[in-house]
Amino acid sequence: MQLLLASSSPYRRQLLSQLKLPFVYAAPDIDESPQACETPEHYVKRLAIIKAQALRGQFPEHWIIGSDQCCLVNGKITGKPLTIERAIAQLQASSGQKVRFLTGLCVLAPDGSWQSIVEEFAVHFRQLTHEEIALYVQAEQPLDCAGSFKVEGLGIHLFERLEGRDPNTLIGLPLLALLDMLRAAGFSPLHLIQTH
Fold first, then answer.
1. Burial code of 97-106, b = ≥16 C-beta within 10 A, e = fewer?
2. Which of 35, 89, 128, 188 has the greatest count of CB atoms below 10 A from its CB?
3. Which pLDDT does position 32 carry in this prediction?
4. Are the C-beta atoms of residues 185 and 113 closer than 8 Å to each other?
5. Torsion sign over Cα 29, 33, 36, 42
6. 59 and 111 Cβ atoms separated by less than 8 Å
7. Residue 196: pLDDT above 70?
């Protein structure tokens, strides 16, 4: 089994590496604009599928993993902040709120068939002071992260509780769902582990 991760995200690569499955990665070149009247669920699922399909021609023998994520604050999609000011504003909007993360996941087989799901995870933020937010953003610089935090880092200081099946969903690759999909495709992931 040859695996390809259709992503340039270092966070997704790091997550997939935890499974010790051999894989390569490549960045798909796609238009990530939402379509008119598209729900967030449909948006992340569609992008996960087209990311995988975009690399089919270059990697016809690979099983391709596509993934896409969005963060919903007060029901509205929130992107990566990219600036300190926007990160602070995003965290101020999230303070005391339940913030939903939706991650679309697709596994595309060499024969062109695919499995896809949307995994949800929620973060309940504490009531945060402006000082706490500013200190956090200064310390972690989460400018390339949807929601303006890194759950695998200092972001844990911001939360009251987490809600969902797989916290890896927050980082952008739901590993439990991925392993389910590989098993459904007839593979035993433990047999594929690289031991060297």
1. eebbbbbbbb
2. 128
3. 87
4. no
5. positive
6. no
7. no
